[in-house]
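Team,

Forwarding the record for the chain on the shared tracking sheet. I've put the sequence and predicted structure together so nobody has to dig through attachments.
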Amino acid sequence: MNHCDIPTHFIKKIDKKSQLLKKVDIIPIEVLVRNFFAGSLSKKFGVKEGTQLSDTLIEYCLKSDELGDPHISSEHILNLGLCDFDELELIDEYSLRINDILRSTFYSIGINLVDFKLEFGICKKTDELVLADEISPDTCRLWDLKTNKKLDKDRFRRDLGNIEEAYEEVLNRLNLTI
């Protein structure tokens, strides 16, 4: 993302299990970017999973385990002082750009990006808003383009098994090594 003008907390990979990251203050918001109805969105509105949204949908949740990460509106975010208006606009802008980048990347390897979650923070050193989260099958819903086979954390959530194999399939299609 850094190469696509989306600033992140990532500095460099140290080894297979370690990274050097910028120190950030996390904004206590989870940003959900949705391209298709799936999961709670399907249940909430009674729309069949896999139905494409007419436009990308951005939703927010308060990052709070004790409250169950409740959905909140932009008005909640601003009134609670979780971030300011300019930061929220930038969060939305970055989220949509990240969606465009990821959708085209995954589509090129036969995977639909159904939805994903992002978190942002403010870099302590520069006061810059940055993406402060991983992007992986743990934070995305990824379905095979032809079969709709789930290649993500839903394999765990729905007790479908073969979680590791699904993640490796995504890795292999991306032609990456860890």
